[in-house]
Design brief:
Elements: E1 10-14, E2 35-36, E3 39-40, H1 41-51, E4 56-61, H2 66-71, H3 76-84, H4 88-97, E5 102-107, H5 114-119, H6 122-125, E6 130-134, E7 137-139, H7 145-156, E8 159-165, E9 175-183, E10 186-194, E11 205-213, H8 217-223, H9 234-244, E12 247-251, E13 256-258, H10 262-275, H11 280-293
Parallel strand pairs: 1-4, 1-6, 4-5, 8-12
Antiparallel strand pairs: 2-3, 6-11, 7-13, 8-11, 9-10, 10-12
Length: 297
């Protein structure tokens, strides 16, 4: 973990969704616990926060996600077995999970959207700035995106969103911002439109799953009118916040892994496996042979 001199010390990870895109695999296990090579997806998210110097993490879960809590807790029977078996490297790995950070859990009582999930963190966060990370996407370990967002927050004292350029044809899948350029990778966000129709977006800069909020976001979330299905949209609250105080965006171009859909999940596994020195060479040869044999290359 890097030394954290930032005022941002708390992170909220949202992991309360139903994971319907992965049914039936997620009928009895959270999608955030699906393995990405040899770690569950949510562990990468926690490790990203810890690497940026965050030492207080709140994970928003739901009724069927107790296995997330178990994953970050001690399991003495397993530890004893590994110790007695001489598997000390694996023992160290599982023991370290419980000491990554101060990890807390709270349940979202009803699936009422991302905005509602964030609002559940109010009591834990208090009057402090905080990071929000989505539980099904994470940045490459070489990325400094989160640290840069924390630096910008400390400089301006305002909320900061992660932004990435996407093809014009795909912007309707995201929240799109109206930016005012400050520097190469920094903009002030003048407006935010959720899933704009193709051709009407204010830009092709899309909001990705990394946010730093001032505590005023909680008041805005209370004012948001529920939408379809009673859901509270986080983007609506951000748009309201922009009317009261400056909100900034840090742009980035790569290093993001997505496990929120089946195709993206599979792509993430392949990319991460190929990047591993212990797996990549042999796995790469297997993929190359497989593609040749099936006439894909």
């Amino acid at each position: 973990m890097t030394s954290n001199t930032s005022s941002v010390r708390k992170a909220v990870i949202t992991a309360a969704g139903l994971g319907t895109r992965f049914l039936p695999a997620t009928k009895a296990q959270p999608k955030e616990m699906l393995p990405v090579v040899d770690k569950p997806a949510i562990q990468y998210v926690v490790e990203e926060a810890v690497a940026a110097g965050i030492d207080d993490i709140l994970i928003i879960t739901s009724r069927s996600k107790r296995s997330i809590e178990d994953h970050f807790d001690r399991q003495f029977e397993l530890e004893h077995h590994l110790d007695q078996s001489g598997k000390h490297d694996q023992l160290g790995t599982v023991v370290d999970l419980a000491s990554l950070a101060d990890i807390h859990f709270v349940r979202q009582s009803s699936p009422l959207g991302l905005g509602h999930a964030v609002s559940v963190a109010r009591k834990h966060v208090g009057d402090n700035p905080f990071v929000v990370l989505l539980g099904d996407e994470f940045m490459d370990e070489s990325s400094n995106l989160l640290s840069e967002m924390m630096r910008i927050h400390d400089q301006y004292g305002r909320s900061v969103l992660a932004l990435q350029e996407v093809p014009d044809a795909e912007i309707s899948r995201y929240g799109a911002v109206k930016p005012e350029r400050i520097s190469d990778n920094l903009v002030q966000i003048l407006d935010l439109v959720e899933k704009p129709p193709v051709g009407s977006a204010p830009s092709n800069l899309a909001v990705m799953g990394r946010y730093i909020f001032t505590p005023e976001i909680f008041d805005k979330l209370e004012q948001v009118e529920p939408g379809v299905g009673g859901e509270i949209q986080l983007t609506d609250a951000i748009a309201m916040l922009i009317n009261d105080q400056a909100v900034y965006g840090v742009t980035f171009s790569g290093g993001r892994y997505d496990t929120g859909t089946v195709p993206a999940y599979l792509e993430t596994i392949v990319e991460l496996a190929l990047s591993r020195s212990d797996l990549g060479p042999e796995f790469g040869r297997f993929l190359a042979d497989l593609c040749r044999n099936r006439g894909l290359v």
